[in-house]
Every structure is written in structure tokens, then in C-alpha cells.
């Protein structure tokens, strides 16, 4: 099989659906120049798995595509490559570099979520985490989402410090899509160390309501009710 961006997009077109195009167009929140082919996510992921051996130059060509599904395919291929059992640190660095260098093309919440944990987080697992703090302070919403979403991989390994620190940096963010990611990270922190999550939540003078709802989702009902009640004055997105 010819593992090129052109063949990948041609393959996606065989799954085109007008109904799916309408659905995707409603929730896509990225750049206005983006075009939607209309491909179910399962078909995009399955195609990406078949093209997982695609050279990185062709993956970058997919990121350059105007098609949403092509870019979703690109980040999916990066994720599949990051999962390989015999991947070297140099190869993992190449995935990480491509993701960050072309972050301008990773411009929707699901594109970030598809690849940031393994492509960014896994690479940084045994390295300094300073790049994530730079991303957390970025003016770009998707770079900030990468910062917190990459920590999901640390949390999975039982490492929660950076997730909590970056969550703290993003509590005042103006965007609800960041509040949701922060809440998800905190929820996962609670699975590792519930006591530390609760202490973190209690120490905040106010929390975005959506963050608090996500963060407390897996806590015991009485404790969750208490924390949600205490957060009745929580910040709304875009305020405070």
C-alpha cells in the first residue's frame, strides 16, 4: 500500500457521508478555513491504523490538509506510532517535535485529545516538564489544552504533581474547553490520590463550575455533594 497523504485522503473519501459532514460541522471549533469530508470517526481511526507506517513527512502533509478528517488521521497516526513496543527515544522525540512544530494545525479539542497524552506526555515522562508550563501560558487555547491533556499520561503512571500544578495555572482560564480538560485531569488525579485531590479542591477560593463537576465525578456521593455545595459561588467560564 502506498502510505502517502494523497492515498490516505482518497481512502477517506470512500467513506464520505453527507449526514456525517453535517454532524462534524456542528461541533468542529477550529479554523474557519477547514473543510469536512464527512467520515465517521471509526472509519478515520481504522484508516489511520492501516497507515500507521506512514513516513513523518507524509504525516505532516496530512496536517497541512484543509480537511478535518485528514488532520484527525495525522494525529491518530502519531498516536499509533507512539504506542509501538520497540520505539526508540529518538523516534519518540520526532513524533513530539512534529506535534509541537505543527501545533497550528492541531486546532480542535479532539485533535489535541487524540494525541497529546502519548505523543507529548509519554515523551516527557522521564524528562523535564518545562515545555508543558510554556504551553500552559500560551495565548493559544489548543496549546493550553495540550499542556493539561499531556499530563494524563503522567497521571496514568501515578505521577500527579505536574497535573496539579498545571491545573492550578489554568483555573482562571477564560475558555470552558480548558475548564473541562482541567476537570478531567483532576478527576483522574483523584483515582490515584483522592486525599490530595480533595485537598487541592478545598484550597481553591473558587473553581469554575464545570471543572468542579468533572473533578468530583468519581468521588463518594456525600463528599461530592459537599464539594459541589461549597462551590456554589464557583467562577463561571470567562469570569474572574
From TrEMBL:
Protein origin, superkingdom: Bacteria
Record-linked SUPFAM superfamilies: ARM repeat
PANTHER family: ARMADILLO-TYPE FOLD, DNA ALKYLATION REPAIR PROTEIN
Protein name per Swiss-Prot or TrEMBL: DNA alkylation repair protein
Organism: Streptomyces cheonanensis
Lineage, top ranks: Bacteria, Bacillati, Actinomycetota, Actinomycetes, Kitasatosporales
